[in-house]
Specification:
Blueprint lengths: L2 H4 L4 E4 L4 H6 L5 E6 L4 H16 L5 E6 L11 E6 L2 E7 L4 H12 L14
Parallel strand pairs: 1-3, 2-3
Antiparallel strand pairs: 2-4, 4-5
């Protein structure tokens, strides 16, 4: 299944030419899914990435990117979480939504309703 065929406007396909403006200069954290259309595991996690993009609307930007030599991507799928233009976290391989969610939540920090209370990791 072609990832572009199931993409919606919440997951943006970026090219090498607009990567800097879309990802590195973003004011919100950006979850980048490095993939290839021929990659089975990449296609397997596509629905998970789509669902997470809806869950984190307005908090995290989600983008798809074909292989990028700039970040020495050797295995796909590789997911990287960028914040202020810097890679804050990465995962190589296909994982359940909970693994991606844990890393995104960690990058976002405590939620507004948690302020004033001690938050312990579960």
């Amino acid at each position: 299944m072609n990832k572009q065929a199931i993409s919606n406007e919440k997951v943006i396909l970026v090219s090498e030419s607009d990567f800097d403006s879309t990802v590195l200069q973003s004011e919100v954290p950006v979850f980048v899914d490095f993939y290839a259309d021929w990659c089975g595991p990449c296609n397997m996690i596509a629905p998970t990435i789509e669902a997470l993009s809806e869950e984190y609307t307005g908090k995290v930007k989600f983008v798809n990117q074909q292989l990028a030599m700039k970040y020495d991507i050797l295995s796909i799928p590789t997911s990287m979480l960028f914040e202020n233009g810097i890679v804050k976290d990465s995962l190589i391989g296909a994982y359940p939504a909970s693994a991606y969610r844990e890393r995104i939540d960690h990058a976002l920090g405590p939620r507004s309703f948690e302020t004033g209370t001690s938050t312990a990791r579960q």
